[in-house]
């Protein structure tokens, strides 16, 4: 059973109190929607995280980066980074798993990506396998803004010789699980949610700063939730 009050490295100086979130909110760690059980700042700072994010390990090993252990860090608010697995943006001030020697970065959600037997609505004929290879995404190839073909992480159907970006494979696969277990569909839907929320953050950060609010403030998850109706 989760504790009612915890101290957590993601929000030093204040204790976090267990809360039940009723309205839409974004988790300050993973940038996914936060509803239901979570932890919020006991001093009423604008800070909240999932109960599962509070339990994330500070270090982990990942098949996506065999060379070294990855460390959970918070990015600076003046840097724009991309996840080396899904190629999606990492919002300024967000948390990610990093290999300091190699400069490898990965969304916390991407650390949960299943390696094999993944169904995608974009290629329902066969299961897909996560591979690091030279490839070209069958879903977004040739579209404006799409990553250029090259070496990266893809979900691959070897039988059909079809490759999909991690982010493309996740599009449209948001069915809810009927149990408390995390399914491949849950993980892929989470990747899609992170991409959407970060795109909104980047759009807000490009706006003219008004009313004395900084770009960093505009990019905070709670501010994004309040302003998404304008996008």
Automatic annotation (TrEMBL):
It comes from the Eukaryota. The keyword Repeat applies. Residues 9-54, 65-111, 122-169 form the DC1 domain. It holds the Pfam family C1_2. Keywords: Repeat. InterPro entries: C1-like_sf (IPR046349), DC1 (IPR004146). PANTHER family: CYSTEINE_HISTIDINE-RICH C1 DOMAIN PROTEIN (PTHR47841:SF7), DIACYLGLYCEROL KINASE THETA-LIKE-RELATED (PTHR47841). This is DC1 domain-containing protein. It comes from Eragrostis curvula.
């Amino acid at each position: 059973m989760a504790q009612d009050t915890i101290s957590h490295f993601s929000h030093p100086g204040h204790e976090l109190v267990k809360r039940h979130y009723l309205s839409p909110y974004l988790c300050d760690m993973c940038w996914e929607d936060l509803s239901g059980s979570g932890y919020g700042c006991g001093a009423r700072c604008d800070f909240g995280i999932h109960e599962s994010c509070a339990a994330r390990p500070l270090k982990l090993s990942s098949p996506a980066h065999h060379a070294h252990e990855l460390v959970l860090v918070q990015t600076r608010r003046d840097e724009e980074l991309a996840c080396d697995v899904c190629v999606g943006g990492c919002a300024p001030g967000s948390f990610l798993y990093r290999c300091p020697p190699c400069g490898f970065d990965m969304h916390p959600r991407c650390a949960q990506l299943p390696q094999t037997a993944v169904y995608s609505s974009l290629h329902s004929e066969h299961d897909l396998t996560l591979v690091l290879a030279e490839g070209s995404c069958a879903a977004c190839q040739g579209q404006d803004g799409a990553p250029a073909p090259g070496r990266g992480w893809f979900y691959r159907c070897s039988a059909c010789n079809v490759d999909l970006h991690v982010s493309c494979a996740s599009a449209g696969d948001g069915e809810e699980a009927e149990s408390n277990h995390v399914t491949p569909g849950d993980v892929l839907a989470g990747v899609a949610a992170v991409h959407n929320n970060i795109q909104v953050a980047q759009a807000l950060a490009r706006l003219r700063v008004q009313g004395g609010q900084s770009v960093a403030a505009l990019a905070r998850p709670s501010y994004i939730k309040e302003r998404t109706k304008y996008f």
